[in-house]
Amino acid sequence: MNYNLHFVDRCNTNNRLSDQRFPLIASKVIIQLSEKHYDAIVVGAGPAGSSVARKAAEQGVNVLIIDRKREIGYPMQCGELVPTVEEFPNILPRAKRAEKLFNLPKWVISNTCSRVAVIGPSKKIHEFNFGQNILDRSRFDKWLVMNATKAGAELWTCCNAIKVESDGREVLAKKEGKIIRLKANVLVAADGPSSNMAKNLGLGSNDPKDLIVTMEYFMGGVDIDADLTEVYFGKEYAPGGYAWIIPKGEGMANVGLGIRTSFSERGVSLKDYIERFISKHPIASKKFQKGVILSRTGGLVPVGGPIEKTYSENAIVVGDAAGQVMATNGGGIPPAVICGDIGGEAIAQKLRGENDLSFYEKEWKSEVGKELDTGVKIRKIVDIALRNDKLAERILEIFEGKIVREVILCRLSMPLNLVYKTVMGLRQSLKVLKR
């Protein structure tokens, strides 16, 4: 099988090739439009779906991946930051497969950082050490899909799943203006935070009120420390979320913010907030005086925790579609890849008659479930502080900044109920002082 070909845009007649400086994806793109049957069909070729497909294909499963995008990894909708392999025990200590899955090739990494600075409403800087790989997200996604196709998975791009049977055995898809009937023993819903597949399968969906809306600029000519990721929070610039400056190297950065609309000012748009951050923040704006916006993108991040059930008799839901995101930092790539790997293994076991798909949910909860659940609980406490800048700063003073690292890692060193009582007590004292 020849895998050294380029990736072709087949959505229109003007085929546009992607970056050809390195092998991206196998040219194993199936164009046959007749009815076909597969062991498993994966809807969505992001980190979760590609990881499911690779793991299943490695174990002999006949897998088809379909994705509506013209080019895998584009447009990019992510801060592009993942922990280094050395940091995974600190953030997902029970994820036994993380070290192997995140042994990344150099060509998918733009930069490596060792520090994080968190700047609150008072502009005081809280800095701590944390090893990070800053991805080239487009290359990373292509690498994951390439691994899946090398293992034997097939890929259809520019293909929309328009209907799925509730039993997960049949998908109607649209490709190049034609309707294709696809049949499978197992269906994988990996179609993102607003997953239609999960809804159609009766497995629930992310609550809209728990979706963070993001906007990101890829900027050049910025004056930043290439070893430092910067996180900013406060109602004026990122209500209900945070803003970030993630160094990509050579004076470039991923600059963005995420907000929740229930926290934002009436009449102020997401674009208004990011422009305000870039042009008016007392610390951040100085870094952008000679900056140039090279591209813009945006997306959604679910922070309400995993959906109630992530499997049925013939289907699983994985990644953002399943709400498998670290709620305090919005990190979705590590859980997506880990849960995807588990999902692929579960499919292979089901098809061999060794297990049903409940194995998938049991296993991902065993490896990352506690951290995802704790992250949601912490986020709900943090939400109280995000509505009041004075309260947020008072909390930072009391905990001497230590809590910042722990919140970002979704792991607190003190009991959650004690943190909650402290936050509520501080909020009440501020109310008394206002009178």
Features:
435 residues; alpha/beta; FAD/NAD(P)-binding domain; D-Amino Acid Oxidase, Chain A, domain 2; 3 domains; 8-stranded mixed sheet; 7-stranded mixed sheet; 15 strands; 31% helix; globular; disordered N terminus
What does this structure look like?
The protein has three domains: 178 residues, 3-Layer(bba) Sandwich (FAD/NAD(P)-binding domain); 120 residues, D-Amino Acid Oxidase, Chain A, domain 2, CATH 3.30.9.10; 47 residues. It contains eleven helices and 15 strands. The strands form two sheets. The protein has an eight-stranded mixed beta sheet with strand order 3-5-4-11-12-13-10-14. The protein is globular, with a radius of gyration of 22 Å. The N terminus is likely disordered.
Condensed summary:
With 435 residues, this protein is α/β, with parallel strands linked by helices.
Reported by name, the CATH topology of the largest domain is FAD/NAD(P)-binding domain
How many β strands by DSSP? 15
Write down the domain tally: 3
For CATH, the homologous superfamily of the largest domain is named as FAD/NAD(P)-binding domain
* Main β-sheet description: 8 strands, mixed
β-sheet strand percentage: 25-35%
Q: What spatial form do the alpha-carbon principal axes imply? A: globular
Round the Cα radius of gyration to an integer and report it.
Answer: 22 Å
- The order of strands across the largest sheet is 3-5-4-11-12-13-10-14
Output the helix-strand order.
EHEEHHEEHEEEEHEEEEHEEHHHHH
Low-confidence segments, given as residue ranges, are 1-10, 12-33
Corresponding CATH architecture of the largest domain: 3-Layer(bba) Sandwich
Arithmetic mean of pLDDT: 88
CATH class of the largest domain: Alpha Beta
